[in-house]
Amino acid sequence: MASKSTFLKFKGLHINLIHAKGASDVVARDMLKGEVDFASLNDPYTFESKVIGFPLSFRKYFFDYQPKAGFIINNHDFNVFTLELSRFFVALDVQVGGKTFILISIYCPPSGDLEDQLLCLRSLLIKFPNRMIFIFGDFNAKSSIWGPRDTDKRGRILLDLIIENDLLIVNDSKSLPSYSCPSKGQSWIDLFLLKNVSCDNIISWRIDDRINFSDHNFMDFEFFLEIFKKIPKNKSWKTSNLNWFDFKASISSISDSMENCEMDDVDFSVHKFQNAIVNSCWKNRRKHITIGKNAIWWNRFLEMERSRIRALRRRFQATSEPNERIRRKIYFK
């Protein structure tokens, strides 16, 4: 069976906007340029508890009151179904290019119990163990695995979750910091995690410090996947495998039924005639009856005994000296 390949490719970004309108405007500008298919946003800019500043053509997935995490979707080929929509956690089921995957945006405030903040994420990972999952979030957790800082308590909790669920960390510990503030220093707290997706499919991942009016930096990435589809072969028939007498009778009845065909129905009639021929070939093919070869009384001991007897027979037949043949014939009789 032959196959052909297609490509699934999209670009995304993640950033904590710290509720800054200027940062929100930068994201909207980049998306309007067509450079980004979707954006994961933490602490977005809101007015009267609603996320604003994006064109109406963009789809927004945020909680309806003071949201802290969510998505802006710019790619109209994304068929999106909401799995979870809360203030700090948003999960979307996305279908595109024949593939289905889950996008997750999560925000974990520095105050509060991280174990409790990760409950929604943990529950969804258990519910969908075999799905491709992309996780973006400001976890406010430090670890030497994804940054140069020592691992803190929150980092250990997050690492336990990552190990338990076999997640992959896309972040590079040698990258620019995802958080940079003159008064508070630098930190590597924004993460991109994968489940059932190879890091080889993530290309051009980077932390970009372009001006954005937020103390967090952009996390940009591009996803690329080659999809192979099998092409079924057309059914072919061997004329030697047909019962010609029955086939001829069947075709005659088909042709008789087509005599009153109208020109207006010629396409339908051709399709009907073609299907009738295929069905006739299938109906009048020669049946191959498979005779069972496995006797119920046959067992492994008899198999070994048969092999031994055959070996003795080959040895006897290979003997050319007359006296030795007579001796073996008497001995093995």
Automatic annotation (TrEMBL):
MF (Gene Ontology): catalytic activity
InterPro entries xrefs: Endo/exonu/phosph_ase_sf, Endo/exonuclease/phosphatase
Residue ranges constituting the Endonuclease/exonuclease/phosphatase domain according to the UniProt record: 102-218
Domain of life per record: Eukaryota
Entries under Pfam families matching the protein: Exo_endo_phos_2
PANTHER family linked: DOMAIN-CONTAINING PROTEIN, PUTATIVE-RELATED, ENDONUCLEASE_EXONUCLEASE_PHOSPHATASE DOMAIN-CONTAINING PROTEIN
Protein name according to UniProt: Endonuclease/exonuclease/phosphatase domain-containing protein
